[in-house]
Amino acid sequence: MMEQLKKEALTFSTAQPSTLEPTYHRKKSSIVGPAYLLLFLTCLVVRRVFSDKGYSSVLTLGAGTQFFGFMMLIHKVHRQKSVAGISRRSLETYALVLMVKLTSTLFRQGYLPVDRSGDWVYQLGDIASLAAVLHLMIEMHTTYKATYQEEFDTCDVTRCYPICVLMAIFIHGDLNNSFLFDTIWTLHMNLDVVAMVPQLWLISRLGEVEGMTSHWVFCMVFSRACSFSFWFYGFRELKRGNSINLCGWQLVIAHALQLLLATDFLYYYTVSWWKQKKMVLPTGGARVNEI
Q1: Domains contained in the chain, number
Q2: Residue 164, by phi and psi: left (phi above 0), alpha (psi -120 to 50) or beta?
Q3: pLDDT tens-digit map of 167-223
């Protein structure tokens, strides 16, 4: 009798992981679908209630998607109790980008959506994103400091900051009708070009891309694609007289660079999503492994 009980217990202990593992993964990914559905419904409400349904509302869509991406990252940190796979350098740069941007958009209207969403909804999206980034940075420096992978987060983009400042001073638009606020808005755009670079570098060093982290990167890229689509349509507004539209083309190129830098990631993100497999980007060539 005792021998039989031992065999049954041994059989249960060996079978338990394989039985629970699929359930764990279902719970792990169950939040993604409802989260994207909530984002879609929120966009519909904002478009119907707080927008004139003009094309400029695509900027507000980008700001909302950006906030959604940061919330996905917060969910990942709290669920896993870890900041592994997240670049502190990218978060610090995004915090700077958002603070500089809000310094312009809270006081001047030159670069805001021209519909009602530009009255306060657009700015609210950036304020919420800034709060989310600061929350993540606090968690990274305090509660989950031990899980931060500093040895892999080695891409220092702070050396680009002076170049971004100089370019903003000498090449900027005039939609704010103010040298100071036009320069500030252009500075945020220049900094935004390099903000995601440390995160992409960290991903390439680690090889493996955790699910929620990949969703955050995708949301950020989609947000910048929204901005690119708007400014590609409206960059001619920045032209001064009969001169070359230098600031307009710089704006378009800056947004295009952000998308170009993430092209490789987007390709393998799409493949992993389509095949429902985990994305791995080893230095020796990208591959997709099963979850």
Answers
A1: 1
A2: alpha
A3: 999 999 899 999 999 999 999 999 999 999 999 899 888 877 777 788 888 899 999
The boundaries of the domain holding residue 237 are: 57-289
Count, residues in the chain: 291
Whether this model's pTM surpasses 0.85 = no
Q: 208: phi > 0 → left, psi -120 to 50 → alpha, else beta; which?
A: beta
CB 46 within 8 A of CB 60: yes
Q: Is residue 26 part of a domain?
A: no
Residue 138 lies in a domain: yes
Note whether 89 and 150 are within 8 A (CB). no
Distance CA 154, CA 72 (A): 24
